[in-house]
Design goal:
The complex is a heterotrimer.
Chain A lengths: L3 E12 L2 E12 L3 E5 L6 H9 L6 E6 L2 E2 L5 H4 L4 E3 L12 H7 L8 H4 L10 H12 L15 H13 L5 E5 L7 H16 L3 E5 L3 H7 L2 E6 L2 E6 L1 H6 L1 H8 L15
Parallel strand pairs in A: 3-8, 3-9, 6-7, 7-8
Antiparallel strand pairs in A: 1-2, 1-4, 4-5, 9-10
Chain B lengths: L1 H30 L5 H17 L7 H8 L4 H26 L12 H22 L4 E2 L8 E4 L2 E4 H23 L1 H11 L1 H4 L6 H27 L1 E2 L3 H6 L1 H9 L4 H22 L5 H14 L16
Antiparallel strand pairs in B: 1-4, 2-3
Chain C lengths: L2 H25 L7 H16 L8 H23 L4 H19 L11 E2 L6 H20 L1 H11 L1 H6 L4 H27 L1 E2 L6 H14 L5 H24 L2 H21 L7 H12 L10
Antiparallel strand pairs in C: 1-2
Helix pairs in contact in C: 1-5, 1-8, 1-9, 1-10, 2-3, 2-4, 2-8, 3-8, 5-8, 6-8, 9-10, 10-11
The chains are: A alpha/beta, B mainly alpha, C mainly alpha.
Chain lengths: 263, 312, 297
Amino acid sequence: MSDNVLNITGIQKNFGGLKVIDDVSMDVRRGSRTALIGPNGAGKTTVFNLLTGVYPIDQGSIVLDGMEISQIPSQDRVIHGMSRSFQNIRLMPHLSTIENVMLGQHARARSLGNLMFPLGMLSKNKWRQEAEDALHNAGIGSYPGEVVANLPYGVQKRIEVVRALVSRPKLLLLDEPAAGLNEVETRQLQELLEQVSQSGVTILVVEHDMHFVRNLCDHVVVLNFGQKIFEGTPEEVHQNPAVLEAYLGREDSQPAKETSDAS
Amino acid sequence: MLILQQLINGLMLGGLYVMVAVAFTLIIGMLNFLNFTIPALFMVAAMMMWATMTGNLPFGNETLLGVFGEANLWVAGVLIAIIVVSLASLVIERFTYRYMKAKYGDATEHALPLVSSLGFLIAFEHTVISAWGSDPLTVVSPFGDATFEIGSLLFSYPQVISLVLSLGIVFTLNYIIRRTKLGRALRSIAERPETATLMGVDVLRIVPIVYVITGLLCAISGVLFTINYTTVDAYIGDTVATVAIAGMVLGGLGNVWGAVIGGLMVGIIEVFSIYIVGADFVKVPIWGLLLIILIFKPTGLFGHSAIGKGKF
Amino acid sequence: MSGYLESQLIILCLSIIYAYGIFLPAASGQLNLGAAGFITLGAYASGWFNLSDGLGVSMPLSVVMAMLFTGAISFAIAFPILRTRGVYMVLATFAFAEVVSGLTINMEFLGAAAGMPVDDHAAVEIVVIAAIGVTLFSFYFMSTRLGLALRSIHDDESVSVLFGVNVRLAKVAAFTVGGMLMGLGGAMYGHHYNYIEAQAFNVLLSIYILLYVLLGGTQTAWGPLVGAIFFTVVPELIRNLAIEIGSDWLADSRFIFFGAFIVLMMVIRPEGVVTRTMQDRVASALAGRRKDTGETE
């Protein structure tokens, strides 16, 4: 059990009458770099939302590093070691780069003393220093004098990753971190994530960029219509007929194994 | 019997509140904005009526007298109130809707038109104060003291007519919303503003119409107030019309029928409160009731499904 | 200092204190249209605690007690009111202020409609010190991690939750502390003028204070200061100008311009005068720093 940092067992989510996530189970090995892929609408971001507690699951269990977290409210899950980035950039537009990153530290700084410490006034404090170092390690400057809304897209995307990192997660959930990045930025992101993985953080990434996935990840889970249809190494996934069908999609086809009764 | 008389008085007052409450609820249901210009327009209409009837307009008093005659001067008052308020509504529409850049998805986005409407409120109040001061002003009712009795209950003609008129206007409005093409357009804007244009609704033409309709509701209510209560001042927007907000919330935001019932109920509650605890204390039951509703049952008595469902 | 200037300074200082009380919750997106209610509570509380016929405590103590009293009431109503959102919250705070107004005018021991005299006097220096203290405190408060959390909540509440922010408590804290500041302002009012008129704090006051804060800008702690200064000083300047040039109309119309200005601001610069970007750029310029352009190689 302690080999896996995350166990998802039989989770299910309905919206209205629609089964959006249907009996999905997977284990994420500690220290691994796993990709969660699937065509648009497969439910990948929904899985992230269920893991982080944005929505409650209707059935099943989520175990993070040995602890059942499906009943724990969203705001308390990050302290148990899971944090995420978002598909569409969700930085705080009116905050500076450093402040956005410092939000990631919040869960570690919830004591009264930390809450009332004047971060903004004393410029050489440990929290600020930590945020600056994290940005520096990721190859991003701290852009003093700018709110993040004015920064280039690629930079904002990477700031989001840094924000998630400073919460010191055991499991890092990244939702399409490479989307919209050019080649240089994608490579830099890959190097950053390899560094992160080597430091012991487990990575679970939703991605469409298969090149990126092949370079970074050692394990891939494929979703389609809210169900897991395959998992394996990136090479295996590339050749699996069910996966190819899901992506290339013949109108009249049903995946060989299961019926998708999503309606 | 006294109770029944108070009930009658409450209904009469409620009749005025009904139109203002409907005005509030229309704008909130359609555009998700608490329009504080509504009390101002009510006050302006009431003042226009007073000014016309007492010859205090900055122009043409002799002309008006000549055209309408002393006895029918109130007709001129109504017309002037309607014209002024309609023009004001068109200006207000531009600065609380059309010219707004709604680019903020954050927590205070809804507040921008609200703040703008507060600006208009201050501007209108002070324009009136500039012109005629802030003291109470009286006018002689054009219909004298016409009352009639049923049993031992006293009714005043102007008040009964006001109530009937209020209800009639709202019924008509509701009919328009429910059964006409215009009404369908209003509802589609309210429920899904982004797609309304795709469905062929000319939003930029319809929204000003809504503003003018709400302006007219305020105008008629304000004019009736002057006729019935004969004393007006620059602050009656704050002191009278804002109470209709309680009626709107009681009935459910966006719910036109709810606003009718809510407006009548608030009128009755106010009259009974004055009777039981005195005029000084009346704020407490009314606003206390509003506070309790907002905290425990913000959807009001009837929910808000008529216009803009699912928005709140 | 002349009597006129001193009276203007008092009004300015009180406005600044009230404005920060509204600013703290506004920074997290909570709009409080009931400032008059909290100010009333503070004024009457401190007055009564201080009154020899009341509790008879000395002025500094009565002011502190009044702040705690107002804070306690703010705390108590914060939980239910903060369950409301957006326009509902605006209405709820508005209703709260009306209820406070309606209650206090009827309380005999507070003088009812005749108003209440206040014993101890707070000289102008004390009011100024209070305003400075409130300003410094607010800058400190917004610079803390709690302040950062409030600003995050303003921008994106759901993401703030996902990073562990206890949104409920943060909003309650801002609302409560804001209430205490307004209570302090009310207490200062009462002790300076030594008299609280029955309806001294009304709907218009609540509206004006919220407007100062929103027009000054809610993104930084400079906003309320700029807003309060601008909107108490400029109308006076116009009035003096009008007297000089002998135009009655201009003097009477200054609030009409105020209203029109608000309408224009909401279209042209709804984020208010002082934005985060402006603050940072001014700070950078003053520090003579070049902007950091980013990537290390």
